[in-house]
């Protein structure tokens, strides 16, 4: 193991208290299967190069004005732990392979005053990361993800995602974890930034300016989603939580439904993007999910919208699939689709991850049979798990593109 810490010094404060600080001005290397801990404030100077391929544990403030990175030779993990507030700052981006947030000093112990980038995984064990108040940002690199995010630990501020085809943004505000889910399509170069706000969108986005199909808009929360790179329109899923979302949005009405609405800068109004609602599993920190394909970017929230009338069609959509080989509902059957060969069917799971995409869908060979041809984590040979899915059907009828969306239910009964 090679560890070089070029200077460790004690400084006398005006309060006559002694504060110890670990300062690095040269090369510091934490090799795989080794560990380095610092009880004091850590300061990596502009000349400092820190390579973390083992475990690095920070119990106090952490500042980076130099280079912090890792190699793929190890599984480097940086721990921010302790029982006091921790300021994470610096003029340069710190690149961590893995990072763990676990601080029990208070509800919001982490103050992110810089940009940090995660290459593999971030574990949100305990403690909210306040990036909003300190102008910080957390970046998830291609194929990076996170675990354990909840009301106890998430990012209150901007989260950027680079390259992932599908991603849950671990965002929230105040003391509530309110993630959004994005499926980006086929372009891994797309870059998006999301932030959740538990407040009114403000006078610049009046809720009275809206589509005729919008009945009532959630005026106490919204997500700000920007597309920093790319041109595709994503599948977006937003969450509802009884702790933040008004009670009226949980009431069922046969003439209305929930939809996602977006503030359109060009039209200066809220537009209805549509949506399909699913109930989440017991134990989640939010209770419902609304999913739709969006037509733009900016401010999004939930709304109660008019129930759309089913387009005049001779199609019959059977939305139950039980791929058990008994010859009954073995596939997603759309009776009459053969009359409209110019069509496309897309199917997403409840998180907005595309699991099926096919053109010229028909009644014989091009059909969804419960197996993913998308990027699901489920192996194709094992089939998709039972549950509720979301479908988008587009077809050309008399030179008019008609779109149908709705639920699809997969059961694995033997």
TrEMBL record:
What are the record keywords, sorted? Answer: Signal
Signal peptide location: 1-20
Q: What is this protein called?
A: Gliding motility-associated C-terminal domain-containing protein
